[in-house]
Amino acid sequence: KNEVEQSPQNLTAQEGEFITINCSYSVGISALHWLQQHPGGGIVSLFMLSSGKKKHGRLIATINIQEKHSSLHITASHPRDSAVYICAVSSDNNNDMRFGAGTRLTVKP
Amino acid sequence: KAGVTQTPRYLIKTRGQQVTLSCSPISGHRSVSWYQQTPGQGLQFLFEYFSETQRNKGNFPGRFSGRQFSNSRSEMNVSTLELGDSALYLCASSFDGTGRHEQYFGPGTRLTVT
Fold first, then answer.
1. Measured between alpha carbons, how far is B67 from B61 in angstroms, rounded to an integer?
2. Cβ separation of B99 and A29 shorter than 8 Å?
3. CB of B74 within 8 A of CB of B34?
């Protein structure tokens, strides 16, 4: 079993829909990261969180440490949100990030 | 501040050759991590360097090596290339290499081994 599990693997939505991507992990962590990867490969860090909730524009990330679960929400989705979203965890002592397999999101106009 | 840069962006090599990839971190960042991304295995941690010392290493064979210079720039080397080494190689920099600081990723080097 992978240490970081994401669901769903693929997600297709219509523009304007509310989207949720889930991440569960089985190891101790100091932080959980949500990353965005567009075609071409570049990765952008969206959130780094260790408790509670963070919001940037239309994106919201939550984490429940007790349940070892995090969610990434996109409100009012747009075709430019189409990308692969990757959940990753890091420990306190080092940058050995463990990654989920990613969720491929396609938002249709 | 300039972002993380990687050179070259694309590379084609033949089996058995060796390759060196370069990563320049964000100014002031002392930690550089390297990752391999393949369609089959996803993103995997290769190694991390901090202050010219390798602090952590993933589960890769000894053909994969790296180093870090005094200006925090890092190189990774893959010797005796195999077809399975074809991948996107990403580096990321962070301030002090702990899990408490965000990592910033470079654009990657896409290596094709023929």
1. 16
2. yes
3. yes
The rounded distance, in Å, linking the Cα atoms of A63 and A101 is 18
Cβ of A102 within 8 Å of Cβ of B110? The answer is: no
Give the tens place of pLDDT for each residue, A53-79: 999 999 999 999 999 999 999 999 999
Q: How does pLDDT run across A1-32, given as a tens digit for each residue?
A: 689 999 999 999 999 999 999 999 998 888 99
Q: Do A42 and B107 touch (CB under 8 A)?
A: yes
Q: In A, which residues are within 8 Å of B37 by CB distance?
A: 41
First to last CA, chain A: 36
Q: Which of A42, A94, A100 sits opposite B99 (nearest CB)?
A: A94
Chain A within 8 Å of B36 (Cβ-Cβ)? no
**Is residue B21 within 8 Å of B110, Cβ to Cβ?**
no
Tally Cβ neighbours within 10 Å of residue A32.
Answer: 25
Comparing CB atoms, the residue among A41, A101, A102 nearest residue B88 is A41
DSSP B25: P
Classify residue A73 by its DSSP letter. Answer: E
A95 to chain B, any CB pair closer than 8 A? The answer is: yes
Residue B10 CA, chain-centre distance (Å), reads 14
Q: How far apart are CA A83 and CA A21, in angstroms?
A: 12
